[in-house]
Write a structure and sequence with these properties.
Number of helices: 16
Bound molecules: uracil
Helix content: 40-55%
Largest sheet: 6 strands, mixed
Strand order of the largest sheet: 3-2-1-4-5-13
Distance between the termini: 23 Å
Strand content: 15-25%
Number of strands: 13
Length: about 450
Amino acid sequence: MTAYDIIEAKKHGKTLSKAQIDAFVRMVADETASDAQIAAFCMAVCIRGMTDEEAVFLTQAMADSGERLSPPADGIFADKHSTGGVSDSTTLVLVPVLASLGVKCAKYSGRGLGHTGGTLDKLESFAGFNVNLTAQQFSSQVERIGAAIAGQTKTTVPADKRMYAVRDVTATVDSIPLIASSVMSKKLASFAQVILLDVKYGDGAFMKTARAAEQLARLMVAAGTAAGRQVEAAVTDMSAPLGDAIGCNAEVREVIEVLRGKRNNLSRLSLLHCERILRMAQGTEEKRAKTLVQEAIDSGAALEKFRQIVSAQGGDTAAFDDAEALPLAPERVILRAPGAGKLHIHAQALGKACAQLGGGRQREGEDIDHTVGILLKRRAGDSVAQGEEVAEVFCRERRQEALDLAQSAFEVRHSYRARPLVHCIISKEDISDVRYQKKDNG
Ligand code: URA
């Protein structure tokens, strides 16, 4: 069985067997398959799709492509994963809040993907931050300080490490089986028992409709449930940027502000997710969970926990005392409202513009510029006057195409209908239509 034959089969829309999927993933992990073959496979999957069963086989093969981590001790470990959005730094708020409340977080994350930002890139805004923890370092840090956030390595989920990097630069991200297998392989390779998935839909997400996001959510919940994990998915709005900052340094600055009490949709959603995980992990009653989470912020315990995580992974903690330690690029461009009325902000255009200014990768493995970004001065739904300042772009070079794209993200209409932050919750009771029979896979 060759990589060529497997790609050819998927190109013609054939359903791949478990043996074919296992073989391809093995070739990805041991580097027998080239980047070109990975790209061709992913493009074939994007265009031809996969059955639910193929997607679950792909997830399992990817999870097993490296070593599976074991928990450092008895107890409940939690994880949360977003399918990707713009100004979506919920992980960086949620992990310290939960860890400060005694819920241990074992978090495997990814880098920026397409127009969306990545947790690992944001963490590397702290000079020296090490995202490449060994399995042993990861587990012992979770045990010692209650949280670790790391990325795929050559030994942990190596198939996702390669496929993720190739998908980022080959327009092969927005596929339900590829997203489901990428996210869930990382979750299954790690040891978190309680997993909350944040499945985004809307302009700034890979799933443009709530229906597609629900389908993705059900598939991931089914894959996790089949593996014996306690999984729920929140389908959440990503029509406008979640927070007020886009770009690594700007977003990390905002996370620190949120942990100091700043309120916006980023803080609201992060705290809602914390409350849900507290309920899943400890059965904490809703009102009590809300109180505990707010206390973690108000007391400064969550901010202190974030500093501890950064320090444990070798990062420079100067930004906790001085935001200027996370500099913003020197060129400033003001974006203005194109008319008078209610402001609409198209998240994808802003994410792409930030990537084009150097905040994202055009080629695999490239360094990114952590200092470029966009700060929103007004939020979606605000009433604005024509010409009013709505955002500020920070860049090194005034790349006109990117600046025009950023400006095009702002539209003014007569009205604005805000969507609820959380559209629905999908749990194991909602997955009966997923066509995957666990008995087939033992
Ligand atoms: N997050 C991941 O880990 N993988 C994806 O494909 C999308 C979001």
